Amino acid sequence: MKKQLAKMERAVLYNFYRNEVHDMATGAVITAAGMSSRMGDFKPMLNVGSISIAHRVVATLKQAGAELIVVVTGFRADDLERHLSPDNVIFLRNESYASTKMFDSALIGLDYLRTRCDRILFTPVDIPLFTPETVAALLRRDGDIVIPRCGGQTGHPIVLSSACVDRIVRDSGEGGLQGALERCGEIEYVEVDDGGTLHDADTPSDYRSLLAFHNRRLLRPVVDISLAAENSFFDSRIAMLLFLIDGTRSVRLACKQMQISYSSGWKLINASEHELGFDLVNRSQ
């Protein structure tokens, strides 16, 4: 009887784990490696309302259905990774951020996700106010490259198929990401009534306009699912950790990609295993 119960518990957990991160079709890449030289302050950690620009981009992408989100860091990487560590995202670094361009950072994230996701959203970190409804409208299209257009201007995020990403990572890079997209295939534009696709925070003046635009639009729903006995013991955080352990075969590397301490990672694993009564991670020396 105990073996049957354990088997049932494993099946429930396995299905939760697959639904949470392992069978995902949509990922996202946020480039945040730049030095914010025109702003004069570190853009990703500037607040828009009560949360930072970076937190807001991640929250909107999650709300829109992106389950696997990669943030490519560079300048002040440690600060930004600590800042975003509660958001359960994956951190990859562009160590050459001072001498490379955004396209190089984009390639790092796109290359990581191209075999893990069918479709990938892409945006720079400093465009934080597009809506989940806009993302949903983009994802409903089947094109290899889908770009929002508002008032005749193109914006972000863009949606890329995995096939398109395969071509982008092999591209010459001439003309940056825009050049790679033009060589990649036909671009489908989606007309949206969403000024948030256009507002960035490149300069102090842009930032002031961004704040004014934000103050006219507030409220968003947030839903998180967890398994619990007397207390919650399995949620999106442990699910993401297990996903990364599965890919890296290392608890230490998985913790590093989530910017959590090695001891904290094991605490999450041990707490879940204690409640479930079986191992989630096979240990070996």
Would you mind describing this structure in some detail?
- The chain is of the alpha/beta class and 285 residues long.
- It is built from eleven helices and twelve strands.
- The protein has helices spanning 2-22, 53-63, 77-84, 102-113, 132-139, 162-169, 176-184, 204-214, 236-248, 251-258, 262-276; strands spanning 26-32, 47-48, 51-52, 68-73, 90-93, 119-124, 145-150, 153-154, 158-161, 187-191, 227-228, 232-234.
- It is globular and about 60 Å long.
What is the topology?
Elements: H1 2-22, E1 26-32, E2 47-48, E3 51-52, H2 53-63, E4 68-73, H3 77-84, E5 90-93, H4 102-113, E6 119-124, H5 132-139, E7 145-150, E8 153-154, E9 158-161, H6 162-169, H7 176-184, E10 187-191, H8 204-214, E11 227-228, E12 232-234, H9 236-248, H10 251-258, H11 262-276
Parallel strand pairs: 1-4, 1-6, 4-5, 7-10
Antiparallel strand pairs: 2-3, 6-9, 7-8, 7-9, 11-12
Helix pairs in contact: 1-9, 4-6, 9-10, 10-11
Supply Rg: 20 Å
What is the averaged pLDDT score?
88
What's the total helix number? 11
The major β-sheet equals: 8 strands, mixed
Low-confidence stretches: none
- Helix content bin: 40-55%
Q: What share of the residues does DSSP label as strand, in percent?
A: 15-25%
The chain-level structural class is: alpha/beta
Quaternary organisation of the protein chains? single chain
Q: Please count the beta strands (DSSP E, at least 2 residues each).
A: 12
H/E series, N to C? HEEEHEHEHEHEEEHHEHEEHHH
Query: What global shape is seen?
Result: globular
Distance between the termini: 33 Å
